[in-house]
Amino acid sequence: MSEHKQDEINHINKADIDSQDNVNQANIHRKDINKEKINKENIDTENTDKEIIHQDDGNDWDNEVIILDDNFKQSFITTLMFLVLSTVIGIWIMQKSINAYYLQTYHQPSPLNLINSPLWQKGGDIGDGLYVFHDNIANNIGNMNKTMIDEFNTNHAYTPAYKAQMAEKAHQEQLRQEQERQLKAQALKENQAQNELEQSLTLNKSQKVFFAGDSMMQGIAPHMQKYLQGLGVDSVNLSKQSTGLAYPKFFDWNSIIKNTLQSDNSIKVLIVMLGANDPWDMPDKQGKYLEFNSEEWIAEYQARMKDILDFAKERQVGVIWVTPPNMKKNKLNKQMVQLNDVMMNELARHNVKVIDARPIMGGRNNVYNDYLEKDGKNIKMRSGDGIHFSGDGQRILAKEVQSYLIIE
Q1: DSSP notation for 145-202
Q2: Basic and acidic residues composition bias: which ranges (predicted)?
Q3: CATH number where 303 lies
């Protein structure tokens, strides 16, 4: 074969190879295009599915919201009805407590009192029964607990020595409670007595004040009469010098006071100041002289005081009793101290106002003093005889006495 012929054959083979390569590349290109198309279709399909899923999810959420909203409404209505019903039942059962609170707060009957239905009133009875039932349960539980504790402590926990200690402690507690009860009773009694005393010393302008006493009363009564007159209250002043309870044949204060109270129903308060002329031996009803400050003397003097005080109480007349001050002479002052004790002991048995003139007039520890120290000043309270009062002394004592009068 010639060389030229061989070249043609080689050229043809090369062309075939190139043609085959082009075909292969074309096929590869078509495959790539198809693959991209398939991928794009798959992506579009996925997106479509997702949109469908999302649409489905949205519809499900709306359905769930509707269901939840219906359930909430039903629950709310049920709860509201329960609360309203509970409130009505509570008011029905507790109506008596509500009525009591309303009355105490607004000082008028509760509107619930206007409901006269037997069914409505039955609720109040049920409420009372529930209160009693609750109290009974609480008491029973408390008693049961105490019984169990006491039984355990008595039979299992305590030694004989400890039991003895507990018994002594219980005894002391019992004594303490009894003492506390007595103190409360005494305080209540004193408070009641104080109220009664204040009431007895209260008077209006149609009633009078009666002054009875010796020369010391003669000194202070005019000041009080002037004070009362300014308030529109009348008074009766029968004070007389050198008088007392010791010598009724000279001046019988018991008879004079009782006759005056009996003859004048307008007298509401009796003010007495006696004793300065009494610290001496005195005769009894039979004329026998009794030694000053002896048991017989004390009994007789207190009996004369009691006679006046009991009659005033019987007439519903309040009493203010002013006891004598200290005296300048030692012997007389000692006698006056003893007389004050006698008077105080008797006055303590009666619900009357007692005014001790000694500290008011400047006396200290039963020692006479011409002056009263008040507000940084020394005020002369006594006259030169060491018995009677100065003008300032009269005014100060009168002001103290009249301060206990209550004028309506």
Answers
A1: HHHHHHHHIIIII--HHHHHHHHHHHHHHHHHHHHHHHHHHHHHHHHHHHHHHHHHTE
A2: 1-17, 29-42
A3: 3.40.50.1110
